[in-house]
Design a protein that fits this description.
The chain is of the alpha+beta class. The protein contains 6 helices and 7 strands. Strands 3-7-6-5-4 form a 5-stranded mixed β-sheet. Strands 1-2 form a two-stranded antiparallel ribbon. The longest helix has 31 residues. It is found in: Membrane. Keywords: Heme, Iron, Membrane, Metal-binding, Transmembrane, Transmembrane helix.
Length: 169
């Protein structure tokens, strides 16, 4: 009904007969309202992983999504460090560095939402690479080692023998 505060399912009239805003605007308004209410958006892994360039960089740490784009130039390790951890859970990388308490507090202003844990790819189990068959001729290796030991001794013995022989004449 035109002139009511209701809107139809088809997006008809909205608040006193005005047309309903486009869906994209309604989504943005809903997101803004949830942010203002203290709720954070839940992102899928692929969406977060797609933000992987200097001008648009998101990272995941401890299940939280951070838009670190404004921090790229200020990061003490440089932007390469942040770019290297896009597209994966950077929690271990973050913890291994041993960030200060002030760095952890600074993260709050970059926090934009949570990661949907069900969208994170299953970690691949480590598969030990098959051993490449090497030189199976152990006899040749042993001979080389013996010669490396004996040749200097033989040279030293020969030098000693020549010295003794020339000394006696």
């Amino acid at each position: 009904m035109v002139g009511t505060a209701e809107r139809t399912a088809s997006g008809g009239s909205y608040n006193c007969g005005l047309p309903a805003p486009p869906i994209s605007e309604r989504v943005q308004i809903a997101a803004l309202a949830s942010d203002m209410a203290g709720e954070k958006k839940v992102f899928g892994f692929e969406e977060v992983a797609s933000h992987n360039v200097t001008k648009d960089c998101w990272i995941i740490i401890a299940g939280k999504v951070y838009d670190v784009t404004p921090f790229m130039d200020e990061h003490p390790g440089g932007d390469e460090v942040l770019l290297a951890v896009t597209g994966k859970d950077a929690t271990n990388d973050f913890e291994d560095i041993g960030h200060s308490e002030s760095a952890r507090e600074m993260m709050d202003k970059y926090h934009i939402g949570e990661i949907d844990a069900s969208t994170i790819p299953v970690k691949r189990t480590h598969v030990t690479p098959q051993q490449v068959p090497g030189n199976q001729d152990k006899g040749a290796d042993a001979l080389i080692k013996i010669l490396q030991f004996l040749v200097p001794i033989l040279i030293l013995g020969l030098a000693f023998a020549i010295r003794q022989y020339t000394k006696s004449e």
